[in-house]
Amino acid sequence: MSLTLAIMAGGKSSRMGTDKSFVTLLGKPLIEHLLDQLADLGEDERILITNRPDDYATLGLPMFTDVLPDKGSLGGIYTAITHSQTDYTLVMACDMPFANPALLKYMMGLCDGTHDVIVPRVDNYPEGLHAIYSQACLAPIRKRLEADQLKVMGFYDDVRVRYLDEAEYQPFDPKGLSFFNVNTPQELEEARRLAGE
């Protein structure tokens, strides 16, 4: 099965107060940490979803703006799958500096046509911006977007979902740092502490 990696950098970063993609961790912008972690993933294509393409031009990635503006993360996922040239799209938030390539490759290995969403659950909560979506998700997501039902997992009942719970992802990522995302200055400080360890 073919797969696109889509980096999501379309958020407003309102809790951070500045574009979180470019806040620095160990002297490097957050988004560059993610790209470094995912350098050898082996995907078929790599794209960036952003509503500020000029800010990200230096990354040299194909960029797409939201198909349906102001629809939050779900709108970003829809945009990613829409522009994906492959069977599956791995969606990753730009603010996850500790993404784990071994776990992601394991998830990619589950892309065999029997699931439409492959998503880890942390404390019973699906990590929708660290998940893989098939093209079959487009119509159910579109329906939700048009109804302004913007909860990421809102359409999961309409597709075939494969959850990964802690016992399954722990061998790859014992501390669960894959899902640590940096939304606030406090979380940035915590990320800096973790990166320094």
CATH class: Alpha Beta
**Distance separating the two termini:** 37 Å
Number of extended strands: 10
Work out the helicity level: 25-40%
Shape: globular
Look up the CATH topology. Answer: Spore Coat Polysaccharide Biosynthesis Protein SpsA, Chain A
Secondary-structure blueprint:
Layout: E1 3-8, E2 24-25, E3 28-29, H1 30-37, E4 45-49, H2 53-56, E5 63-64, H3 72-83, E6 88-93, H4 101-108, E7 117-122, E8 125-126, E9 130-134, H5 138-146, E10 161-164, H6 166-169, H7 185-196
Parallel strand pairs: 1-4, 1-6, 4-5, 7-10
Antiparallel strand pairs: 2-3, 6-9, 7-8, 7-9
Helix pairs in contact: 3-5
Tell me about this structure.
This protein has 197 residues and is α/β, with parallel strands linked by helices. It has one domain (3-196): Spore Coat Polysaccharide Biosynthesis Protein SpsA, Chain A (Alpha-Beta Complex). Helix content is 29%, strand content 20%. It has helices at residues 30-37, 53-56, 72-83, 101-108, 138-146, 166-169, 185-196; strands at residues 3-8, 24-25, 28-29, 45-49, 63-64, 88-93, 117-122, 125-126, 130-134, 161-164. Strands 1, 4, 5, 6, 7, 8, 9 and 10 form an eight-stranded mixed beta sheet that branches. Strands 2-3 form a two-stranded antiparallel ribbon. Strand 7 and strand 8 form a beta hairpin. The termini are far apart. The mean pLDDT is 94.
